[in-house]
Amino acid sequence: ELVGQQQGMDLIRADTSTRMEIARNSTAQVPIVWCITGMCCFWIPMIFFFAAANVLETCEKDLATFMKVYSLILLLLGPTMQTLITCCAWSGNKTCFKLANRLHVLTSMGGLSLMIVGWVMWSGTTDENCYDTDGMHPNADINPRTLLFVWILIGTITSGLACLLLTCMIVLMVGSVSSSE
């Protein structure tokens, strides 16, 4: 019987000590998560750094720095939070462990905030001032504004769909609980 496993309509609740023990037992997964994240997602900061190298000095905003920071935070925030949770589990401090688990909300909020800042950066800059289509590009001919636009557009659509699906799941769960009473 697993903690959190669904039995009929009820979920088994686990106290903090049990959840800490589960986190301690999955410590070996932390380096695996870091390695898989690095191997599968290394290209995200790479293309953002290549595009940032193409930003002109005349750009209205510091688009190059934003693109570098944005790509690194997107890549590193999830594994960092998981590492923090595991470290707190090993510390034995229940308050710290609970806080670390609740900080997972910051991962989503951080991503959403960066996406909003991305839209502000994109709308406050122009291709004419930020990218020279005929210029010499050191790594790749990637227009930074186009890359940023495509990335935040996909993120916005995905976030919207996630909110819609989450709402549908909540409605279905409330409906099934209501009908079982």
What is this structure, in a nutshell?
The protein is mostly helical and 181 residues long. The protein is 73% helix and 2% strand. The chain crosses the membrane at residues 30-52, 72-91, 103-122, 148-174.
The number of domains:
1
- Sheet with most strands: strand arrangement: 1-2
- In whole angstroms, the N-to-C terminal distance is 26 Å
Quaternary structure annotation: single chain
Task: Give a structural overview.
The structure is a single chain. The protein has 181 residues and is mostly helical. It has one domain. The chain is 73% helix and 2% strand. The protein has eight helices and two strands; from the N terminus they run E-E-H-H-H-H-H-H-H-H. It has helices at 16-25, 29-41, 43-52, 63-91, 94-102, 104-123, 127-130, 144-180, and strands at 6-7, 10-11. The chain has a two-stranded antiparallel ribbon. A hairpin with a 2-residue loop joins strand 1 (6-7) and strand 2. Helix 1 (16-25) packs across helix 4 and helix 2 (29-41) runs antiparallel to helix 4. The protein is globular, with a radius of gyration of 21 Å. The model has no long low-confidence stretch (mean pLDDT 89). The chain crosses the membrane at residues 30-52, 72-91, 103-122, 148-174. Keywords: Membrane, Transmembrane, Transmembrane helix.
Features:
181 residues, mainly alpha, two-stranded antiparallel sheet, 8 helices
Summarize the helices and strands and which ones pair or pack.
Blueprint: E1 6-7, E2 10-11, H1 16-25, H2 29-41, H3 43-52, H4 63-91, H5 94-102, H6 104-123, H7 127-130, H8 144-180
Antiparallel strand pairs: 1-2
Keywords: Membrane, Transmembrane, Transmembrane helix
Transmembrane segments: 30-52, 72-91, 103-122, 148-174
